[in-house]
Design goal:
With 366 residues, the protein is an alpha/beta fold. It folds into 2 domains: 15-28 and 39-62 and 221-304, no CATH class; 65-211 and 312-354, Rossmann fold, CATH 3.40.50. It is 40% helix and 16% strand. It has 15 helices and 9 strands. A 9-stranded mixed sheet has the order 1-2-3-5-4-6-7-8-9. Strand 4, helix 4 (116-120) and strand 5 (130-135) form a beta-alpha-beta unit. Helix 5 (153-166) packs across helix 6 and helix 10 crosses helix 11. The longest helix has 17 residues, at 276-292. Pfam families: EHN (PF06441).
Length: 366
């Protein structure tokens, strides 16, 4: 395969958008919740499902979102015989720092859409600017599916390091969360000649034994216990039978919406979910997964990598310790928000901030 970097434009054919709308409008919802007063005990509430389905069929404009995506250039390049799609927002400043931003599941390159502009072209020209590189992980959107069994996030790290060097960035920084954290951790542990600084918003880490919990740590422990008990069905299915659920959802837009949208509901500040942008974010992700046929290969993150209950143990292994300076922002509504004294056990922590929401106001406790 050629090593050239080829321009790419997000351009979903009109007939595909029309087909999605036909399929949605031909879908029958059950018409009622599973039992009276089910609320969100059995999954996302029925009222939520009805509301977001209505938004997809009546309000959502794919072409306006596609135009937003194309405001910055996209490319595809082949590395190790895998085509990798990425957005590249170059800054004008000669002092700009290369920044690799890595998504997770259920996400895509688009989850950084609110920051690649301000980071590459800050409102104040005197502010620090970044050359922002946002790849689609193998198996997501327009990147090729993983080429073999046993392809892990460590392989993604190696490919992304090669991508940055192909772009001329011999040294760079990384932002990562969710499954992207494990790509970033690999870069910060083993690619220290090129990865010079790392920031995570997800880094499962164990507290030292015998410590007394802070109020926030107690609240987080309760949420994590509830998560592992009541919210892990999706992960068990994807880490054991991705073909089953993947084929079932492949051409099923409402199925994709519920499967992915559930996680948007369960791992975000409830107040932020009331904002119109949150609905747009979910529908854009579901649309991307449907149009690019990536719902099934996106599940390989779960099948080929460490299980949730072993995340903290994995991060504590000496070979996985982050060697470069790294920062961590702990968002209370994320799935496993770690405290400073926990996450600093897994690497060279130089910055920590505990926050209640993705709009970054401080939480009590550590």
């Amino acid at each position: 395969m050629s090593s050239e970097i080829r321009p790419f434009k997000v351009d979903i054919p009109v007939e595909e958008v029309d087909r999605l709308q036909r399929k949605l409008k031909d879908t029958r919802l059950p018409g009622r919740e599973i039992v009276p007063d089910a609320g969100d005990q059995y999954g996302p509430s029925y009222s939520w499902a009805q509301t977001i389905y209505d938004a997809w069929t009546t309000d959502f404009d794919w072409f306006s979102v596609q135009a937003e995506m194309n405001k910055y250039p996209h490319y595809i390049t082949a590395i190790e015989d895998i085509n990798i799609h990425f957005l590249h927002a170059r800054a004008d400043s000669p002092r700009a720092i290369p920044l690799l931003m890595i998504h997770g599941w259920p996400g895509s390159f688009w989850e950084f859409s609110q920051v690649w502009g301000p980071l590459s072209h800050p409102a104040n020209p005197e502010d620090l600017a970044f050359h922002v590189v946002v790849p689609s992980m193998p198996g997501f959107c327009w990147s090729d599916w993983p080429p073999r069994k046993g392809w892990t996030l460590r392989d993604n790290a190696r490919v992304f390091d090669a991508l940055m060097k192909r772009l001329g960035y011999e040294e760079y920084m990384v932002q990562c969360g969710d499954w992207g954290h494990f790509v970033g951790r690999e870069l910060g542990a083993r690619f220290t000649d090129s990865c010079k600084l790392l920031h995570c918003n997800f880094a499962p880490s164990p507290l030292p034994e015998g410590v007394q919990y802070t109020e926030r740590e107690r609240e987080v422990a309760g949420r994590v216990e509830d998560w592992l008990e009541r919210h892990m069905g999706y992960a068990v299915e994807m880490r054991t039978r991705p073909h089953t659920i993947g084929i079932a959802l492949h051409d099923n837009p409402l199925g994709i919406l519920m499967w992915a949208g559930e996680k948007y509901n369960e791992a975000a500040d409830p107040d932020k979910q009331k904002q119109p942008f949150w609905t747009k974010a979910i529908l854009t992700t579901a649309s991307l997964y449907f149009f690019t046929g990536c719902i099934m290969p996106s599940m390989l993150c779960y099948y080929e990598n460490v299980r949730h209950e072993n995340f903290a143990e994995f991060n504590m292994r000496p070979e996985n310790r982050i060697q470069v300076p790294f920062g961590y922002s702990s968002f209370f509504w994320d799935t496993e928000p770690s405290s400073k004294r926990a996450v600093e056990r897994t690497g060279n922590l130089v910055f920590y901030r505990g926050m209640c929401s993705l709009l970054s106001w401080y939480c009590h406790g550590g």
